[in-house]
Every structure is written in structure tokens, then in C-alpha cells.
Amino acid sequence: MSGVLYLVPTPIGNLGDISRRCAETLAAADFIAAEDTRVSLKLLNHLELKKPLVSYHEHNKKESGPRILERLLAGETCALVTDAGCPAISDPGEDLVRLCAEAEVPVCALPGPCAAITALSVSALATGRFAFEGFLPAQKKERRERLERLKTEERTMIFYEAPHRLRDTLAELSGAFGPERPASLCRELTKLHEQILRLTLGGAVEYYAENEPRGEYVLVVAGAVRAAEAVSLEQAVTLVQGLIADGMRTKDAVKQIAEETCVAKNALYAAVVSS
Ligand code: SAM
After folding, report:
1. Which superfamily, per CATH, for 5-109?
2. Ligand 1 pocket: which residues have CB below 6 Å?
3. What distance in Å separates the CA atoms of residue 171 and residue 203, rounded to the nearest whole number?
4. How much is the pLDDT for 207?
């Protein structure tokens, strides 16, 4: 019988954020696959654990992945950790999970620290619907195309960025989405110099023209506000009727369509009940 691949999230700055279950899983695993073994050794020393480590990162994943899979198929359990945060989120863990899934090796994900979710929760922007964008493509053309497609994204967007590219990225985001777009710049989360700047993209460009970007960043950017579409009262009634036919309550359907179309709620309700 094959073993299990455990995805073990590790602190994104504060070592106190390792959970008891994560520590126990690391202790119980036959071996640990780590992105940078030196980084993970610090955590293992903190937990007073001595475990066999294998290296698994972007530049060796093609060779290391199949070797790890072979051991899992032979019945060993492996804990996968990355330098910080949740394995498989903007790191090569994604490929190992796919490899295991294809080979029908069980994968068990433990909940824990993730920079994106930590930033979103503290951003003070809408959290109900969001799009995780990770790192923008490195190639200029692909970046431009990605930003072009995101111009109409209405969900809150989350980007990862390295400090040496922050200024350029903020300028590009401001150019694409406009300088008035609200954003939260979340720096060094859970660390001594944690800083949350809630401003506009234009304000962020100005701030970093005068301040040196330092540390790790998550950029949380408000989604586009949908331009009021010219929908007539009759069209809005039809939309409401469609939702009611799908099983929605009249009141809820009217509320949703009124919000989406900017047709006055009371007028819409009256038109729906008299139709
Ligand atoms: N898998 C990780 C996770 O769950 O967040 C992310 C890995 S990705 C290679 C690293 C990026 O995460 C950094 O460049 C930065 O954008 C973000 N990040 C990680 N730790 C952070 C922190 N303490 N504060 C702000 N951003 C952080």
C-alpha cells in the first residue's frame, strides 16, 4: 500500500504560527521534502526534530518529484514543506501534488499559514469574492496581456511580488487599473516590521517613489466597479423572473438584479409583482 504525501504549511515569518498538528505530522513523516533544506532546518531545529530531508524545488522538481513518488509508492510517508506558507500555492508543490494524484497516492493538506489569505483578511477590501493571481508573468508582453485581461476583473485581486520589482509592478497596476483604484500593500506579514498600507494605486506609486521597498509583499487590489449598464425596467423584470424560475425568492431576486443593473429596487419589485 502506498504512503501519504502531507502538505504541511509553515510560518510565513513568525515561528509561533506552526500548528501542533503540523509539528506532529513533520515528526511522524518518514522523510521531509523541502524547497530550501537550509530554511527548513531552522524550523526543524526550532521544533527540536531531526528528520531525513530531501530537496524539492523549482530547478530539480523534474528529477526529484519522481524519486519522491517512488518512495511514496513503496509505502513511505512524506511531508512536503516550502520556504514559507502553504505548499503548492505559487511554488513547485503544485507539480508534486499532480504527480501523486495521477499515481493515486493519497495527498493530505493541512491548513495553516498562507501569505495570500493573511493579506486578504487584513486588507479591509471586499473578501467575499477574490482572484488569486500570484506572481505576474516575468515577460513584458505576457504581463501586459494579463493586466489587460484583469482590467474588468470585479473580484478583489491578490498578487505576490518581490521587493526589487515592486515599483515597476505598482506603476503597471496603476497604469492598467487607474491611480484611484484602492489597494492594500501588505509587507512582512507576521514579522517584526509588518506594515499594512491601505491607499490607492497612485498613492502607492508616490509612497514608493520616496521609500525603498523592503521585505516581502502581497498586493491586494480592489476589483473593478462595474459600469452601470443601461438595462430597462422591462429587461430587469425578465432577469428577475429568470432567477425566480431557478428557485430564488422574489425578494432576493429583486435585490440581486437591482444591485447588478442599478434599476431602482422598489420600482423593480412593484413591476415584478404586478407582471
Ligand atoms: N506558498 C507561499 C504561501 O502560501 O504564501 C507563497 C510562496 S511564494 C514563492 C513567496 C511570496 O509570498 C513572496 O514573494 C511574497 O509575495 C509572499 N510572502 C511570503 N511571506 C510573506 C510575508 N511574511 N509577508 C508578505 N508576503 C509574503
Report:
1. Tetrapyrrole methylase, N-terminal domain (3.40.1010.10)
2. 12-13, 82, 84-86, 89-91, 114-116, 160-162, 186, 188-191, 216-218
3. 10
4. 98
